[in-house]
Write a structure and sequence with these properties.
Elements (H helix, E strand, L loop, with lengths): L1 H102 L3 E3 L5 E3 L2
């Protein structure tokens, strides 16, 4: 009976030690979970900040694209007006030259190689 009491005592001590080990491991796991939670919160906050910055950059980029399109339309319109004015000037100049050419008497070469006014 004494041996069984010793065996039960050893078993009780073993169970107590095992219980302490489980408790210690639970404490370690709890600490690690808490630290992981802190890291996850920090990462989530950083991700939120990056999302806000990205959204701001997207809005800024969109505004720049809109402004660039507006400026491009204006430049195209201005260049179109300038081109029309240039074409009008060229047309006027061509008409003047045509009128001047028509006023020049037409000359033909005679048989002896001299030019004569045909008109």
């Amino acid at each position: 009976m004494e041996q069984s009491m010793i065996g039960l005592t050893v078993l009780g001590i073993g169970i107590a030690v095992l219980g302490l080990g489980v408790t210690a491991l639970s404490g370690v796991l709890t600490y690690l979970a808490r630290e992981t939670g802190k890291i996850m919160r920090a990462a989530l906050n950083e991700l939120k900040n990056v999302a806000v910055e990205t959204r701001d950059l997207v809005v800024e980029t969109r505004n720049l694209v809109v402004e660039t399109n507006r400026e491009t339309r204006n430049l195209i319109a201005e260049e179109g007006r300038a081109t029309r004015q240039l074409i009008e000037k060229i047309d006027e100049g061509t008409k003047k030259i045509s009128e001047q050419i028509e006023r020049i008497p037409e000359k033909t070469a005679s048989q002896d190689g001299r030019y004569e006014n045909k008109r």
